[in-house]
Fold this protein.
Amino acid sequence: MPETVSTEQVAHTIGHHHHTERTGRRAEVIEILEAILLAVVAVATAWSGYQTARWDGRQADLYGVSSKYRALSNKAAARSGQEELYDTSTFSFWLQTKAQGDREAAQLFERRFRPEYRPAFAAWLRTDPFRNPKAPPGPILMPQYHNAMAAKAQAYDTRATAAFEQGTKARETGDKYLRNTILLATVLFLTALAQKFKVEAVRIGLIGVSGVLLVIALYFVVTYARA
């Protein structure tokens, strides 16, 4: 009888030891998984935060470039308007003196024409405007009329618009990285929360959810544009 009791006790002790060993191994595996998750989350969060800052800085730079070109466009457009007003005014005075037969005064105003205006004026004269009712009202309406400042204003405006659109895209990309950082923070929270539970099923479940969210976040990190 004593031998039988001793054998049962030994078997129970060995079984309990094996169970404890298996439980300990599972706990170690869970802890390793949690450590891996935390490490990957830390790196991914740092990268997302870095990209957010980079894209925000790029947005600010592009918006600054857009503002600079917009100011240059407005300045060139104002100068263009002044030049067109000058062209119209000098032509009006020339036309008035021409109609009065004052050839000397007409020649004086003609010498005052801007170099850009002269080709259009010459082309307008070739239409025989004083006898041709279909002739354009003035040189400024001729295809040969060109204003460099107006073209420059348009070019500046195009560059300003392009820089602004690029800045908007940079802001959108930065917002994507910011949302991804929040997703990674959720993974970090769930992983830390899992460590508080002693029930393995709950702990493993939280780790599983964290793993799925981490995979999604890493996919975004890989597919998003980099600054």
Observations:
- The chain has one domain: 2-223.
- Residues 1-5, 10-19 have pLDDT under 50 and may be disordered.
- Residues 2-223 form one domain.
